[in-house]
Amino acid sequence: MNKALFLDRDGTINVDTGYVHEPEHFVFIDGIFDFCREAQSKGYLIIVITSQSGIERGYFTEADYERTTEHMVDEFARHGVMITDVFHCPSLSGPDRKPAPGLFLKARDKHNIDMPRSVNVGDRERDLQAGQAAGVGTNILYTGTFPTLP
């Protein structure tokens, strides 16, 4: 079984300026690439779990989201980090919207993840609640400093 580093997107990977949906407005948080390279070197799969309710709200399209995600994944690759997968929820409710664990469970099933050995980092309480509900062993609130991984 694999262990994973689950990352929230807005506020953890990139500066959250509100419904970020254009590559040119996607500003990476200082230290995210180093943190993910460390995780990768320790055998973690890197999986992004993100709510993107701006799609259902009509602020941007699924195509806008996909273009921004492609930019994000490409930039990680340029910095030596492979994003294993990205899961998103475009709706305002349902089993995949945090704090519900749906996206974590989909990632677990798709990538054979050992949830108790995995780590979840997010900038909001609902990120941690979703990880806890999915059985992620370590759930960390990002407050400006990335943690040291086991």
Word description of this protein:
The protein has helices at residues 32-41, 62-78, 102-111, 125-133; strands at residues 3-7, 44-51, 85-89, 119-122, 138-141. With 150 residues, the protein is an alpha/beta fold. It has one domain: 3-Layer(aba) Sandwich (Rossmann fold). The protein has a 5-stranded parallel beta sheet with strand order 3-2-1-4-5, sandwiched between helices. Strand 1, helix 1 and strand 2 (44-51) form a beta-alpha-beta unit. It is globular, with a radius of gyration of 14 Å.
- Architecture per CATH nomenclature, i.e. the level-2 architecture: 3-Layer(aba) Sandwich
- Count the beta strands: 5
- Whole-number count of domains: 1
- In terms of DSSP E residues, the strand content is 15-25%
Largest sheet, if any?
A: 5 strands, parallel
Named CATH topology: Rossmann fold
Residue share in helix: 25-40%
Produce a short descriptive summary.
The chain has 150 residues and is an alpha/beta fold. It has a single domain (3-141), classed as 3-Layer(aba) Sandwich (Rossmann fold), CATH 3.40.50. The chain has helices at residues 32-41, 62-78, 102-111, 125-133, and strands at residues 3-7, 44-51, 85-89, 119-122, 138-141.
Task: Indicate the topology.
Layout: E1 3-7, H1 32-41, E2 44-51, H2 62-78, E3 85-89, H3 102-111, E4 119-122, H4 125-133, E5 138-141
Parallel strand pairs: 1-2, 1-4, 2-3, 4-5
